[in-house]
Amino acid sequence: MLDQSTICAISTSPGVGAIAVIRLSGEKAIEIADAVFRSPVKGKILNRQEANTLHFGQVISGNEIIDEVVVSLFKAPHSFTGEDIVEISCHGSVFIQQRILELLIEKGARMAQPGEFTQRAFLNGKMDLSQAEAVADVIASSNAASHRLAINQMRGGFSNEIKKLRDEMLHFTAMVELELDFSEEEVEFANRTELKKLTERIEILLRKLKDSFQLGNVIKNGIPVAIVGETNVGKSTLLNALLNEDKAIVSEIHGTTRDVIEDVVNIHGTAFRFFDTAGIRETNDHIENLGIERSYSKLDKAKVVLLVVDTQNPYSIVQGRIDKIRERVNDQLLIFVANKIDTGLKETIQELKRSVLNKNEKLVFIAAKDKENLDELIDHMVHAVNLDAASQEDIIVTNARHFEILKNAHGAIRRVLNGLDSGITGDFLAQDIRECMHYLGEITGEISTHEVLGHIFKNFCIGK
Amino acid sequence: MLDQSTICAISTSPGVGAIAVIRLSGEKAIEIADAVFRSPVKGKILNRQEANTLHFGQVISGNEIIDEVVVSLFKAPHSFTGEDIVEISCHGSVFIQQRILELLIEKGARMAQPGEFTQRAFLNGKMDLSQAEAVADVIASSNAASHRLAINQMRGGFSNEIKKLRDEMLHFTAMVELELDFSEEEVEFANRTELKKLTERIEILLRKLKDSFQLGNVIKNGIPVAIVGETNVGKSTLLNALLNEDKAIVSEIHGTTRDVIEDVVNIHGTAFRFFDTAGIRETNDHIENLGIERSYSKLDKAKVVLLVVDTQNPYSIVQGRIDKIRERVNDQLLIFVANKIDTGLKETIQELKRSVLNKNEKLVFIAAKDKENLDELIDHMVHAVNLDAASQEDIIVTNARHFEILKNAHGAIRRVLNGLDSGITGDFLAQDIRECMHYLGEITGEISTHEVLGHIFKNFCIGK
User: Fold this and answer.
1) Torsion angle, CA of A21/A26/A32/A34, rounded to 10 degrees?
2) How far is B83 from chain A (nearest CA, A)?
3) Edge-to-edge strands of the sheet including B270-276?
4) What's the rounded Cα separation, in Å, for the pair A277 and A286?
5) Could you tell me whether strands A361-365 and A333-339 are parallel, antiparallel, or unpaired per DSSP bridges?
6) Going residue by residue through chain B (464 aa), what tens digit of pLDDT does each one get?
7) How far apart are CA A376 and CA A382, in angstroms?
8) For the sheet containing A304-310, what is the strand order?
9) What is the DSSP letter of B341?
10) In this structure, how many other beta carbons lie within 10 angstroms of the beta carbon of residue A265?
């Protein structure tokens, strides 16, 4: 399975930079590097240098000097891929990067496939499959929360969780399979009550992991926040204030925002995905009605709902809106955003202040136009997420492949539970347990096919 | 003048890549790196490690792991800047790059200005000013020829030439200034005939350098090649064939190409800058006439002129075009490109083959549409340039600042020559020589102002 060829690629971002790094990995990495490298120290060759050292010199092609470079030397197995690695740090001209790459290929290396360095790290046992997958997530992470999850997964947090689960199941299997050896004698080594307790524990663990995907996905892609409310109460203005730019069209005309505008903004290291929605009001405009329907449909997908109300309206109207939205909101955080307090009705504001909030409800007074009191609103939103994120100390699943596998594993363990309830024989139990363990092995890569690996690594960038 | 602060910047190309490199240079570089770095080896700190070594570990902020990284350690004075340098090779997520940069700044580094690492290399005597300038040219070089010039300049080839010139002048000055010391006595230590010979030698050297700028500029920006000829003879088709893409609009309608289309293409490592020009014919179309005028005006700027003629026309017409273009072309290489030989008139082709070529003229038969015989055309073009490039073993000036200074230096040495002819006194001679030496010092940076440095390095990228 292991490809012994020496691979090379530009590992830094494509384009011109001050410096660029070209990576070379494989049995002949150092030999190939020596074929293009000339040290100012006469007779010095990389092959005789110690691991983890840096060497200044030139990359040459015959007598032509391609560049002055610094070479990093890593030796197997103490490298990222577990193979010998040479990294050439050259001037960041695209021309030079290409020339050096051509030279290395001329001397016997071949271009690396996307993710091939990481794939080799996996195949050489430097990391398991879920860790390898996390490398791509680390590179793609664009906010603190998703970055934290990816780093945790890359460092093996998720794998440890899976290993714990498999250990539990191994214990389980041992007991059941012992029974099978003596099946003629109809003994029960595995106490069914104990077995059931253990199965229930495993089922809970698997369910927790599986269910964490929703949160994981949300953290990765941004907490969905719906901004709803009557037309012209300042929803778009609020969105713009939060985004700090003028993405949504703001106007005085009722019903300006027809489309659901989405934007992701990082606040205190967490990504929020805002949905500005069409104003909710009775209208005969067909297109606008469609927009309003979309508003409501988005509500269910939101984790936080901001109901914006205009304090310039009489309290009865505002109260009506609040009651209406309460009907539509389930267990999301519902924040009543009382807008335009600089020009609002005293009575409305006072009544609002007296209103009784349910659990999961917050009330904030702002003036979106002047960005007044936005901090309090942001605090509520971040706080709501942090409550969820308390579970971040547990493992959160962010990878769709893992989620699919966990669903399958959970299905298998559910069958075990049902089997125990209906008193099926040990061999059926054992089969479901083995299936469950098989699935978990697919996550860590203990069980993997060429096809699965190809699918995983093709989405990596070249050079990683 | 030396700024003692520790500077940091992302040195690799901006954007997402497999890895990115963050560079830290200055007295506190290692100390600051230690404040964010945690080694898996307990108690290991970078400050106690040897120079030119690599270290795996984590970048941390408190208990939070920002990334797993490899740190390169360089120690003053044996580094690019001549200061302690730490390079952090991290995962290429923009988020991670930013976080690490923020952390380094939090721990006492400051963001580097554009080119500040190279500026420090200059200020610390690691390279002279013309070498520092070449670093930017190396990074910007996009073809073999400009790359070769930039590498040569970065490695000190140009500086050596300037130093040789200054040595010659020093000898000169010594002789003349000795006279000044004895000016009362009206002796001439410096033999005027010898002085004149020396001055003439210096003048020739300076002129050669100054004149090389045109070629240098051409190599840097591409050899200008004008494609001219009647309408519909296949100029645009030829350009497309050379460019290997469909940039110019090709059609059967006479006069399709009205604008002068420019494109740079690398052929055998040399950049050629092609100008497709409006077809030259009598026309009443005002806009097209403007285009034709531009065609002619571009001729003078070309180093190579390709006159495309259609062999489908009778020889008398073709001969007329050739005579007409001969009038307009001076000492450029003029290549007659006899196109459409697959459908051309036998008689025209035969007569063309019999025609007598002047020095600086070539004749090629092609079928542009089928890309037939393009290689021969390309060979002629490359050969023409290589004749010029024979002088590439000499030093070629590519930098506009150097060119301006060399013009001034040359002016000063010309005044010395005139002074010698008109027999002016030694003190006037000495003044002009000193001026000339002053200029040359500006090239190497022995004489430099804060303003000049600012101007030079502001065009660098950050991180270099």
Assistant:
1) 70
2) 16
3) B261-267, B270-276, B223-228, B304-310, B333-339, B361-365
4) 16
5) parallel
6) 567 899 999 999 988 999 999 999 999 999 999 999 999 999 999 999 999 999 999 999 998 999 999 999 999 999 999 999 999 999 999 899 999 999 999 999 999 999 999 999 999 999 999 999 999 999 988 888 888 889 989 999 889 889 888 888 888 888 787 777 766 666 666 677 878 888 898 899 899 899 888 888 877 778 888 888 887 888 888 888 887 644 444 434 444 444 455 777 777 777 788 877 655 554 555 555 555 566 666 677 788 899 999 999 999 999 988 988 888 887 788 999 999 999 999 999 999 999 888 888 999 999 998 888 888 998 888 877 665 554 455 688 989 899 999 999 999 999 999 998 998 887 888 889 889 999 999 999 988 888 888 888 988 888 88
7) 10
8) A261-267, A270-276, A223-228, A304-310, A333-339, A361-365
9) T
10) 18
What is d(CA A395, CA A161) in angstroms, rounded to the nearest whole number? 7
The tokens of B62 are what? 């408190």
Give B151's contacts in chain A (Cβ within 8 Å). Answer: 65-68
Question: How much is the pTM?
Answer: 0.78
* Chain B residues close to A17, C-beta within 8 Å: 11-14, 139, 461, 463
**What ranges do the domains of chain A cover?**
7-127, 132-212+396-445, 218-389
**Within its chain, how far is the Cα of B451 from the centroid?**
23
Question: Is domain A7-127 given the CATH code 3.30.1360.120 in the classification?
Answer: yes
CATH class as words, domain A218-389: alpha beta
ipTM over 0.85: no
Tokens 């006037």 sit on residue: B428
Q: Does A139 touch chain B (CB under 8 A)?
A: yes
Q: How distant is the Cα of A229 from the closest Cα of chain B, in angstroms?
A: 34
Instruction: Show the tokens assigned to B44.
Output: 């290991």
B62 reaches A (C-beta below 8 A): no
Query: Which residue of B lies nearest to A79 if distances are taken between CA atoms?
Result: B56
Q: Which residue of A has its CA nearest to B144?
A: A95
> Inter-chain contact B54–A54, Cβ cutoff 8 Å?
yes
- For residue A104, the distance in angstroms to the closest alpha carbon of chain B comes to 17
Chain A residues 317-336 with CB within 8 Å of chain B? none
Among chain A residues, the shortest Cα distance to B86 is held by A54
Are residues A20 and B14, on separate chains, in Cβ contact within 8 Å? no
CB contact under 8 A, B13 and A12: yes
Residues of A in contact with B461 (CB under 8 A): 16-18, 92
For B138-195, list the strands marked E by DSSP: none
Q: Give me Rg for the CA atoms of chain B.
A: 30
Nearest beta carbon to residue B21 from set A14, A19, A464: A19
DSSP helix/strand/coil, A208: helix
Q: What share of chain B is helix, strand, coil (3-state, %, to 5)?
A: 50, 20, 30
- Asked if residues B397 and B216 have their Cβ atoms less than 8 Å apart, the reply is yes
Token pair 């984790």 in the structure block, residue: A303
- What does the DSSP assignment read for A158-215? HHHHHHHHHHHHHHHHHHHHHHHHTGGGT---S-HHHHHHHHHHHHHHHHHHHHHHHH
A17 and B CB contact within 8 Å: yes
Backbone φ and ψ for B224, nearest 5 degrees, come out as -75, 125
Q: State which residue of chain A sits closest to B55, comparing Cα positions.
A: A52
Neighbours of A285 (CB within 10 A): 12
Question: Mutation test of the interface with chain A: which of B139, B142, B264, B462, choosing the one with the most A Cβ atoms within 10 A?
Answer: B139
Q: Do A461 and B16 touch (CB under 8 A)?
A: yes
Superfamily classification of domain B132-212+396-445: tRNA modification GTPase MnmE domain 2 (1.20.120.430)
Query: For strand A223-228 and strand A270-276, is the pairing parallel, antiparallel, or unpaired?
Result: parallel
Write down the H helix ranges in A222-314: 235-243, 286-299
* Six token digits for residue A110: 């071949």
Residues of B with Cβ-Cβ distance to A12 under 8 angstroms: 12-13, 17-21, 92
